[in-house]
Write a structure and sequence with these properties.
This protein has 14 helices and 22 strands. It has 462 residues and is of the alpha/beta class. Strands 6-5-4-3-2-1-22 form a seven-stranded mixed sheet. It has a seven-stranded mixed sheet with strand order 7-8-9-10-11-20-21, covered by helices on one side. It has two domains: 268 residues, Metallo-beta-lactamase, Chain A, CATH 3.60.15.10; 181 residues, Rossmann fold (3-Layer(aba) Sandwich), CATH 3.40.50.10890. Bound molecules: zinc ion. The site of zinc ion (ZN) has 4 residues, from loops.
């Protein structure tokens, strides 16, 4: 047995930028290559040189399609990575949607910064462009769930469904006689479409690398709170804005609205999905139902054979910019679902600017709001937020419904991790510092495990 190390290149003290490097004497495997998102100091990390020569990496194991897990891949490829990127089918499909959107956004931002002259650089550059994305997509290699595949000379990977989003996986990596388990983003047992996360594999583990997004919290508000908020909003006579992550959250929200309308808990309001990326993702979810994908709950395809689960009744899909703009003057109480989920970019920013100053309107937050995001400012009750360089007064009602989270909360994580039999080491990542500390302490107290919270770039020998 040679030396095996793990280096934490991202998602330390933050929920973004997931990148973990596992090195043996014969190979280097990168688990996820995510983008840093959020406040400027965090985003700036995307521009630091990658600490390992990308051409020396033998394989990337991509756990799922969210940008904070796949968004750095095009830069890795641009800088010389030539080998396969392993991912499940739907992860590859959704990653294509997300990465193309990411390249467009970055190219737009760079152009905008150049025009307005507010960049410190004379000709601001995008991190990567659409060509980088296309060469990245060529490197994807499909893996099936629960099948052990060789990924380099001395390494094997097995992907297990994690119930977080379509295609998502937690991954077992076996390398030079060591076993490592990466939870990535762990789902819950209540997804309306996806099967529950698989149990952890029953073999001795040298290291478990666990997320901790909600490591210090439980999801308390029940789904019934959603109907309460919507009905209160209807009474006020304004419209409802739901910022939602394009992939998966939009689907979950639409299905919840479907249920509430069907059961008569809320009126059959017009619903607009205003995010091109969300609409593309929606098509893949429809496709998964049609082909009865094995990662869906049994019976899903039969249940929805004659009906679209994502159309609660009056669904409009706003694909063009003109359609999106038409939403700024809605004649009746309506629900707009738009990305990004934290109000950091995308069409939702325009809706926030338009809707926040009117006290009849309601914004319902349904996902995690990272520090520094506009969503977090709203969550914290700030009376004005900055949009496009101007302060916008927050007169609209702001509500929060946590039950839509597609991340396990502290109780659920501990319960899932608890099925693992005495891992030699546990590393807590992918959380803000309080959440990481809380989860780490609980795991030490409850299971007497050896738990570390790695610092950025810290290396551990296994
Ligand atoms: Zn995720």
């Amino acid at each position: 047995m040679g030396k095996v190390t793990i280096t934490f290149l991202g998602a330390t003290s933050t929920v973004t930028g997931s990148r973990f490097l596992v090195s043996s004497e014969r190979s280097k495997i990168l688990i996820d290559a995510g983008l840093f998102q959020g406040v400027r100091e965090v985003r700036r990390l995307n521009w630091s040189p990658f600490p390992v020569e990308p051409s020396t990496i033998d394989a990337v194991l991509l756990t799922h399609a969210h940008l904070d897990h796949c968004g750095y891949l095009p830069l890795l490829v641009r800088n010389g990575f030539r080998n396969p990127i392993f991912a499940t089918d739907y992860t590859a499909k959704l990653a294509a949607v997300i990465l193309r959107d990411s390249a467009h956004l970055q190219m737009e931002d760079a152009r905008y910064a150049a025009e307005k002259g507010f960049s410190k650089h004379s000709s601001p550059l995008p991190l990567y462009d659409v060509d980088d994305v296309e060469s990245t997509l060529e490197k994807f290699e499909s893996v099936n769930f629960r099948q052990r595949v060789q990924i380099s000379q001395d390494a094997y990977a097995t992907y297990f469904p994690s119930g977080h989003i379509l295609g998502s996986a937690f991954v077992l990596l076996e390398i030079d006689n060591r076993t490592l388990l990466f939870t990535s983003d762990m789902g819950r047992n209540n997804h309306p479409l996806l099967s529950n996360p698989d149990p952890a594999p029953a073999l001795p583990l040298d290291a478990v690398i666990t997320e901790s997004t909600y490591g210090d919290r439980v999801h308390e508000t029940p789904q019934s709170a959603f109907a309460v908020e919507i009905n209160a909003a209807v009474k006020r006579g304004g419209s409802i804005l739901i910022p939602a992550f394009a992939v998966d959250r939009t689907e979950v929200i639409l299905m919840a609205l479907h249920d509430l309308i069907e059961s008569g808990s809320i009126a059959n309001l017009p619903i607009y999905v205003d995010s091109p990326m969300a609409l593309k993702a929606l098509d893949y979810y429809r496709d998964a139902i049609k082909i009865d994908s094995p990662e869906l709950r049994p019976g899903t395809a039969t249940k929805w054979r004659n009906e679209d689960p994502f159309d609660p009744g009056e669904l409009s899909e706003m694909r063009t910019v003109e359609e999106s703009k038409s939403l700024s003057s809605l004649p009746e109480t309506s629900i707009i679902i738009s990305a990004s989920g934290m109000g950091t970019g995308g069409r939702v920013v325009h809706h926030l600017a338009n809707m926040l100053p009117d006290s009849r309107n309601t914004v319902i937050l349904v996902g995690f709001q990272a520090a520094g995001s506009r969503g977090r400012s709203l969550e914290e009750g700030q009376k004005e937020i900055k949009i496009h360089g101007k302060w916008v007064p927050v007169k609209a009602a702001v509500a929060k419904v946590e039950s839509f989270s597609v991340h396990a909360d502290a109780e659920e994580l501990v319960a899932w991790l608890g099925t693992i039999k005495d891992p030699k080491r546990v590393f807590v990542v992918h959380g803000e510092p309080d959440a990481q500390w809380a989860l780490a302490q609980r795991l030490r107290d409850k299971f007497k495990w050896r738990v570390d919270i790695p610092n950025s770039a810290q290396i551990f020998e296994l």
